[in-house]
Amino acid sequence: MTSTPIRIAAALVNPDNPEEGRETVTLINVSDQIMRLDGWRLEDGEGRRDSLTGYDLGAGDAVRVRLSGAGIRLKNRDHGLIKLVAPDDTIVHEVTYLKKDVKNEGWTVLF
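The structure assignment produced for this chain is given below.
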């Protein structure tokens, strides 16, 4: 993992039903520069992905990315992994969560 000013800050892993297309991952830019996320992606522990193309994050800004439901899937019956991957395929940040962290439907997990 390399250092990057973009971090995974939170995730809505277990949204109210129906879940498909309602899971979210919140990213934050901790730098003083605008960061363009074209070519970046989110991945789960099984390699499924969602593209972040089209997102720009201003200095100190956060964005809530709604997952497509066709790519990355966030497990809520077991532990899970979320990776933030740069265009050069470098994993720049990753977070894990446990089943106990997502037991409350509709609650957001902070990392």
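Interim note for the steering committee: The first strand starts at residue 6 and ends at 12. The chain has one domain: 6-110.
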